[in-house]
UniProtKB/TrEMBL annotation:
Residues 1-37 are annotated as: Disordered. The keyword Nuclease does not apply. Belongs to the peptidase S9B family. The lineage of its organism: Eukaryota, Fungi, Dikarya, Ascomycota, Saccharomycotina. Residues 240-603 form the Dipeptidylpeptidase IV N-terminal domain. GO terms for biological process: peptide pheromone maturation; proteolysis. The keyword Cell cycle does not apply. Residues 699-903 form the Peptidase S9 prolyl oligopeptidase catalytic domain. The chain crosses the membrane at residues 104-126. This is Dipeptidyl aminopeptidase A. Pfam families: DPPIV_N, Peptidase_S9. Keywords: Aminopeptidase, Glycoprotein, Hydrolase, Membrane, Protease, Serine protease, Transmembrane, Transmembrane helix. One of its GO terms (cellular component) is plasma membrane.
Length: 909
């Protein structure tokens, strides 16, 4: 590392995972006051609009919190869910064995039953949950006055009106500066939002002492005669300062701009955060953030990095002065935000606040794409373009810099990146003097994990991987946990999640980082995957993590003990082993004493907070109200269940002809007439490494289609997706768009064959969004209307040469080295679309992710071939989420009614 000669002292929007940094649940509608929004808390309509839309962005396995679908407990056989005759025959035979002392009587009964078995089996199978349908939300409908009658169906209108919404109260732990070494040091400090004296206020409370209460500040406040409403807040652990954001404007998936303020909690004084040369106005910052010990705040203005001490906010230090649209300091550009770091902030503080390291990205050679925002006012069109590298074109270059607080000096960090056109996939201080970072080559084939020893001014290699060994690629990194010195190891270590030799994501413990000779200890094993590290308990040296060992589609909490000699043998499931389908997520305090548990399925959402041991099961926590906080209110949901039936959901798999097992979710109407034939809507995503379908509960678009349009919905997870190890995932390598359609077509055909008496084969549709839109078009292209008669593609890629470089090359390699793969991946067999009954294509003009040129070029080819059997809806000003100017509501109404017209045309006569 070489020192520079520069002079001395030179949030993720709606997705911030820092527990002390919260974005309020939603922005007020035009006819709704901000106080009303805060008062309502976070509303969870089981797949709310924002969550639903965000799901359709390109997410690889490591970025996604979704677990992979069912493998039927490891079975390689066809699921029993698709053998209705045999499963009910087994039911009959089990009953027969109870009467083996009366064989002649049984024979007569058997003959009678055989005569009616076909009709009876069909009726039973199609009238309610089969033997393999498990724990669907509708199985938990409260007792009703008329349980024998069929209640009302619901449509997309009931969904959009919030009939099935569940409120969730604001609750965020306020993090201490470091791991707490004992439970006694941890009061379970958190903040919430409550109504006080007629106004909404942020309140700090404790889980240990329920009488503790400290007011932080009002949600709305005045400054120089103007009124402002808080969009997000960060609170320091001493409860003396808070960072407030107002007037927040979304940029891309993880980024935003806002006015930021430093609040002195005791005095109630708000101080605008801004460069020292600007004194007469508020400015939009990219972010503002506390250092780990809350001594400093760093912020970014016009792509330059600044910081100041919280006790002297008027003394602001400017660290860089070359920020521009192509030089970005401490902030990511579009492709790094979307495809690599999943954040807009690229600043990493040492845990003792002594220094920080940040990136300098250079986009000078990166191609620029102009975004058409037709629906935006002229004054909001300050930047309508984005630096967007496409496959084979120059990527941004990256450098690392270190700023030493005490010396006031900026250093250039010599990172020894070595690799061709390196990509920085992850970075973090794992001790006050050790900075860990992960880099790959341009195509994400080679991974190197390195540690920069600041006190020795040297870099050494800790781990290296060539993913060609398992025909894979480097995925987005999961969060690394730093482990402080303890009774087992005198050094700082860390925990990481990466593939083991069998190709499954598991936990590895690095007890030291002092040399390249340190051997990682694998802590978890088996044909299942660890999804995330959740917490650490210093007292016991237990590590808490989430995984899907109990069932491939679920997620539970586990613990493993670092103090044990055979650490992997200490693995324990912390929840009921009989509830294999449960899906939980946890937020655990820094001592491991307290937790917030979110039960996400398959029953309705429940959220609890309290002692970790008391919230492991939300059902038992219901009966312990004195010690456990209930943070969700499902009264509205339960009231709706008194009026509406929910569809029935089952989780299973189908065995393809080549022996590949494909996971599916089946959503059926709650009532099915055995004499009728039903349409099918197949829902797909299929992106490489993605895990889309789980046991999480949802009542949204597809449930409305199933129940309101008497349609069977199938969600299919084809080859190339995640959760089954690299043997299943690597099919996508250099060959996207090939196996996904093949698997979807064969799976759908087998389902129709197994249920042929009840399927209307002229009314089979497929739909998807983003990569799912691409998969939809590619499936239609391969199928040529043999199986699918209708298709819906929302914001699809149609030519991968027009998508971004890092995502595409991760799976496909460089275009000049895989020309055949890129050519085969295009949507180009237009004649296949001529055979469709109808196609629907949808896109937003301001889509920064999948550019609308994909849709325009595809539709132009349809026109060129004189095809008119398609519809198109363009959303001016909408990005990839299609939410601008009520876009989401218009979109889902449009989708619902388009399917209604396709499946039930008489309804429009």
């Amino acid at each position: 590392m070489s020192k520079s000669h520069r002079r001395k002292n030179s949030q993720l929007f709606l997705q911030n995972k820092n527990s002390s940094n919260s974005v309020l649940p939603q922005q007020p509608a035009s006819n709704q006051s901000s106080d009303e929004v805060v008062r309502s808390g976070s509303v969870q309509p089981f797949f709310d609009l924002e969550r639903e839309v965000d799901l359709f962005g390109f997410e690889d396995v490591s970025a996604s919190e979704l677990n992979h679908p069912i493998r039927n407990n490891g079975s390689n056989r066809l699921s029993e869910d698709f053998e209705p005759l045999s499963q009910w025959s087994n039911w009959y035979l089990n009953g027969k064995y109870n009467y083996k002392r009366r064989p002649y009587f049984l024979l007569v009964i058997g003959v009678i039953m055989l005569l009616t078995m076909g009709t009876l089996l069909s009726y039973i199978y199609w009238h309610g949950p089969t033997a393999t349908e498990r724990q669907d939300p509708s199985d938990f409908i409260p007792d009703l006055d008329d349980p024998g009658s069929r209640r009302n169906i619901f449509t997309i209108e009931e969904i959009l009106h919030g009939e099935f919404s569940i409120k969730e109260e604001t609750f965020h732990f306020i993090d201490p500066p470091e791991w707490l070494k004992s439970h006694d040091q941890d009061p379970g400090l958190y903040f919430t939002v409550e109504q006080k004296t007629g106004q909404m206020e942020f309140i700090a409370r404790q889980l240990f002492d329920r009488t503790f209460e400290q007011k932080i500040g009002k949600v709305t406040f005045e400054f120089e005669g103007k009124r402002y409403t808080t969009s997000s807040i960060q609170i320091n652990y001493p409860l003396t300062k808070a960072i407030i954001a107002t007037n927040m404007e979304k940029q891309y998936r993880h980024s935003s701009k806002a006015h930021y303020w430093l609040l002195d909690i005791h005095s109630g004084k708000y101080t605008p955060i801004r460069p020292k040369e600007i004194k007469d106005r508020l400015v939009y910052l990219n972010y503002a953030h506390f250092s780990p010990h809350y001594n400093y705040i760093d912020f970014n203005y016009n792509n330059d990095l600044y910081f100041f001490g919280v006790e002297s906010p008027s003394t602001v230090y400017r660290i860089t002065n070359d920020g521009s649209n192509i030089i970005l300091n401490g902030i990511t550009d579009w492709v790094y935000e979307e495809e690599v770091l999943s954040t807009d902030r690229s600043v990493w503080w040492a845990p003792d606040d002594s220094r920080f390291i940040f990136t300098k990205l250079n986009d000078v050679n990166v191609s620029t794409y102009e975004i058409d925002k037709y629906a935006l006012k002229k004054e909001n069109k300050d930047k309508n373009y984005v630096e967007y590298p496409v496959p084979g074109s120059p990527n941004p270059t990256i450098e690392l810099y270190q700023f030493d607080i005490s010396a006031g000096v900026l250093y250039t960090v010599t990172t020894d990146l070595e690799l061709d056109q390196p990509i920085l996939y992850y970075a973090k201080f794992v001790s006050p003097t050790q900075f860990l970072y992960k880099v790959t080559d341009r195509t994400s084939r080679y991974l190197k994990v390195k540690v920069y020893e600041l006190d020795q001014n040297k870099v050494h290699l800790l781990n290296a991987m060539d993913t060609a060994a398992f025909n894979g690629w480097v995925e987005k990194s999961k969060n690394v946990f730093s482990i402080p010195p303890n009774k087992v190891s005198k050094d700082f270590g860390f925990l990481d999640i990466h593939p083991d030799r069998n190709g499954f994501n598991h936990i590895f413990y690095y007890p030291s980082m002092k040399s390249s000779d340190v051997k990682a200890i694998q802590l978890t094993f088996g044909e299942w995957e660890v999804s995330e590290l959740v917490g650490f308990e210093y007292e016991s040296l237990k590590v808490f993590f989430a995984g899907n060992r109990e069932h491939p589609m679920s997620q539970h909490l586990y613990a493993i003990d670092l103090s044990k000699e055979n650490k992997h043998e200490s693995l324990e499931l912390l929840q009921d082993p009989n509830k294999k389908l449960d899906y939980y997520s946890f937020e655990i305090s820094k001592s491991g004493r307290f937790a917030k548990a979110r039960y996400l399925g398959p029953k309705p959402l429940k959220v609890k907070a309290g002692s970790l041991l008391e919230v492991l099961d939300v059902d038992s926590a219901e009966n312990n109200n004195n010690n456990v906080l209930s943070l969700s209110d499902d009264s509205n949901f339960n009231e709706s269940l008194r009026t509406y039936d929910l569809p029935k959901t089952s989780y299973s798999s189908i065995l393809l002809n080549d022996g590949t097992e494909i996971n599916i979710v089946e959503i059926k109407p709650s009532y099915i007439d055995p004499e009728r034939k039903y349409p099918i809507l197949v829902s797909v995503y299929g992106g490489p490494g993605s895990k889309t379908y789980t046991t999480k509960s949802s009542v949204f678009f597809e449930q409305a289609v199933a129940q309101g349009l008497d349609t069977i919905v199938l969600q299919i997870e084809p080859r190339g997706t995640g959760g089954k190890g690299w043997e299943f995932k690597s099919w996508a390598r250099k060959n996207i768009g090939h196996w996904e359609p093949k698997d979807i077509i064969e799976t759908t055909k087998k389902y129709i064959e197994l249920n042929s008496p009840h399927i209307d084969t002229d009314k089979v549709a497929i739909w998807g969004w983003s990569y799912g839109g691409y998969t939809t078009l590619k499936t239609i292209e391969q199928d040529s209307a043999d199986t699918f008669k209708y298709g819906i593609a929302v914001a699809p890629v149609t030519d991968w040469l027009s998508y971004d470089s890092i995502y595409t090359e991760r799976y496909m390699g460089l275009p000049d080295l895989n020309e055949e793969g890129y050519e085969n991946a295009k949507i180009k067999n237009i004649s296949a679309f001529e055979k469709l009954t109808r196609l629907f294509v949808i896109h937003g003009t301001a889509d920064d992710n999948v550019h609308i040129e994909n849709t325009f070029s595809f539709v132009d080819k349809l026109n060129e071939h004189s095809l008119s059997n398609y519809d198109m809806h363009i959303f001016p000003g909408s990005d990839h989420s299609i939410s601008h100017h009520n876009g989401s509501r218009v979109l889902f109404r449009k989708l619902y009614n388009w399917i209604k017209l396709a499946f039930h045309p008489r309804a429009f006569q």
